[in-house]
Design brief:
The protein has helices at 107-118, 125-149, 172-179, 181-197, 259-269, 306-313, and strands spanning 6-11, 24-28, 36-39, 46-49, 52-56, 64-67, 77-78, 91-96, 101-106, 160-161, 202-205, 208-209, 253-258, 283-288, 294-299, 302-305, 320-322. The protein has three domains: 6-16 and 248-322, no CATH class; 24-78, no CATH class; 91-201 and 212-228, no CATH class. Strands 7-4-3-6-11-12 form a six-stranded mixed sheet. Strands 13-1-17 form a three-stranded antiparallel sheet. The longest helix has 25 residues, at 125-149. It is built from six helices and 17 strands. The chain is of the alpha+beta class.
Length: 329
């Protein structure tokens, strides 16, 4: 019988997700900073400070504000001369991946469908409200980008889709079929109420709409610098500790592969690479990013990025450790 060599890779939480999936936490009285709500009356913008903080891949830096077109309360206001409000559409064209067609959806109903598709309704109301602001901001930025440069290549007929490529969206009919009529009476009403409570609210950085209002389910304890994930650096997306995820679903997971299977997956994914003989002693992490993700990994005589390894093995994260011995890795 052929001896089985196992490759065991331990994931330390989801890294930087596919677009639209970076950590989003709402903290009460957080020491990291203060978020602001800006409302727009008929003549000029005003800002109302509140004791709440959004954590979006990073501790929110000074200058990030939560802005709205609603009426402002009468206290603690100041003018923002640099504010450039984004116009929200009444409807959004949405590419439905399974049906392979474009559907026009009321914009705020779309936000409700995204919150329902991305997070459980059991979440605290404030968390649902935070998710709504993130989803609305992300959508608005993608729509504006599409107007200026065209729709994404993945779905050229619409600026947004209903999958994790953008944000997961579920219609009320789909949710009722998926979760049941009882959920619609409670879960849908709870999410709808949270979305309606934040209607029109968007995230801005130094007066401009946040381009990357991303979120994910787990960071593995530390978020990532945007420049280590994307081609561009965003000053509000920097690496910070995220100690609030000790019970996160994906914090500690393991994947095992036989040596033959591991080698085959890697070599098939990157046939242009010369790996030579792949043995346990030739499989190790060479470097990591500031956020802890694998930057470079040695496999045989070749070097791959953490993202390449992740994609080749079908892992949801590049934040993993590799333990090698004579028979297992």
């Amino acid at each position: 019988m052929r001896k089985r060599h196992l490759i065991r890779i331990r994931r330390r939480g989801l890294p930087h997700p596919a677009p639209g999936r970076i950590v989003f936490l709402l903290l009460r009285k957080a020491a990291a900073g203060i978020a602001s709500i800006l409302s727009l009356p008929a003549l000029k913008p005003v800002v109302l400070t509140i004791t709440a903080v959004f954590l979006l891949l990073a501790a929110v830096p000074y200058g990030v504000s939560l802005l709205s077109k609603g009426d402002a309360d009468s206290g603690g206001m100041e003018e923002r001369a640099d504010f450039q409000p984004a116009e929200l559409p009444d409807t959004v064209d949405l590419y439905r991946t399974e049906a392979e067609r474009v559907e026009t959806v009321d914009f705020e109903d779309y936000v409700k469908g995204v919150v329902s598709g991305e997070v459980p309704s059991e979440f605290h109301r404030e968390a649902l409200k935070a998710q709504a602001v993130a989803a609305r901001t992300y959508s608005a930025a993608r729509i504006i980008k599409a107007r200026e440069g065209g729709n994404p290549q993945a779905h050229p007929s619409a600026p947004l889709c209903d999958s994790t490529h953008c944000q997961v969206y579920r219609s009320p009919e789909e949710l009722e079929e998926l979760k049941g009529e009882g959920w619609m009476d409670k879960g849908w009403k709870k999410i709808s109420s949270a979305v309606e409570a934040t209607e029109g609210q968007l995230l801005y950085y130094k007066g401009r709409l946040v381009e990357q209002a991303l979120f994910h389910s787990s960071s593995g304890g530390k978020t990532e610098n945007s420049e280590d994930v994307f081609a561009s650096a965003y000053p509000y997306l920097v690496s910070v500790d995220s100690p609030y995820e000790t019970q996160a679903t994906h914090r500690n997971e393991k994947n095992s592969f036989s040596m033959e299977e591991f080698s085959e997956k890697i070599k098939t994914a990157y046939p242009q690479k010369d790996f030579g003989s792949v043995t346990a002693s030739s499989i190790y992490v060479e470097s990591r990013s500031q956020g802890g993700r694998v930057d470079e990994m040695k496999i045989g005589s070749a070097i791959l990025s953490g993202r390449q390894v992740r994609e080749a093995l079908g892992l949801p994260s590049a934040n993993f450790t590799v333990e090698a011995s004579e028979n297992t890795v």
